Amino acid sequence: NNLISSKITKEELELLYWTKKFTLLEIGKSKGLSEATIMGRMNILGVTRRTRVEAQQERRLRTNKICLNLTPNLSYIIGVICGDGSVFIDNRKHYIVALTTIDLEFAQSFTESLSKIGLSSSIKLDALRPHIKIVRAYSKRFVVWYRALDKISFLDSIAQNSKLFFSFLRGFYESEGTLNLSGKPYNRLAMSNTNKELIEKLFRILKDYNFPFHLYTHKQAYSPKHKPYKICYELTLYYKGEILRLLKILKPVIKNSNYFK
User: Which residues, in sequence order, are bridge partners of residue 237?
Assistant: First the structure.
């Protein structure tokens, strides 16, 4: 065994372990050696091993059978990410799907939809701001897939399927929507975003569903010192009857005024 293991190079171990994502056990089996022998050889050659978090992430990738077929849950998830949600790769090369919100119901809804496509996730409180809820899921496959997704082409593909489209819109509305039913100065349901192409596409699709939205452009600044200003695009619906019709279709878990009770 020592003779065989001595012939395994550092480059070969790094290829199997880091590029092909083999476990120590799988490398050992491929070479007819024990896991302990492979570990010892890695130590000798100075091949770094995964951290505990990285190992957990790899296990999730292996155990999670993610379904990326077009379903209402996937459409909802994409809607959320197009708004307050995010996908990113952190400094440790973890592939993360995330949502930060003050609304527990929203966090729970997002988590439930993630689980239905095969993604494990958790809800944690921000250490410094305990009213903030943070949802996180780890999936390289999903992050890579989402980043390659053309959002406008996606909307075109679901525009004629009302169940898929309004599932997307529910996620987007729960992320980016506001609702005022006080009548002061007027009733108003709005959704805003800095992605002009996305908002214009939603405007056209909603028009096809006979919702009389108005499209506005605003300057948006996070502080007086924030320059240049970001341009924000807004879809606004004013008529109370139409607002109620949309809410009954979307069934949002927040920003719903309980469908006017």
Answer: 189
238 backbone dihedrals φ, ψ, rounded to 5°: -105, -30
Taking a C-beta distance cutoff of 8 angstroms, is the pair 114, 77 a contact?
A: yes
- Average confidence (pLDDT) per 10 residues, the chain, 261 residues: 69 89 80 85 92 78 76 98 96 92 96 91 87 91 94 97 98 96 89 96 98 90 60 94 95 86 61
Strand order in the sheet with 230-237: 177-180, 188-193, 230-237, 214-220
Indicate the pTM of the whole model.
0.74
Identify the burial level of 158 via C-beta atoms within 10 angstroms of its C-beta, where 0-12 means exposed, 13-18 middle and 19 or more buried: buried
Alpha carbon 238 to chain centroid, angstroms: 30
Residues 6+ apart with CB under 8 A from 197: 152
**Is the separation of the CB atoms in 234 and 215 below 8 Å?**
yes
User: How many CB atoms lie under 10 A from the CB of residue 79?
Assistant: 24
Q: Which residue is associated with the tokens 């050696």?
A: 33
d(CA 123, CA 116) in angstroms, rounded, equals: 16
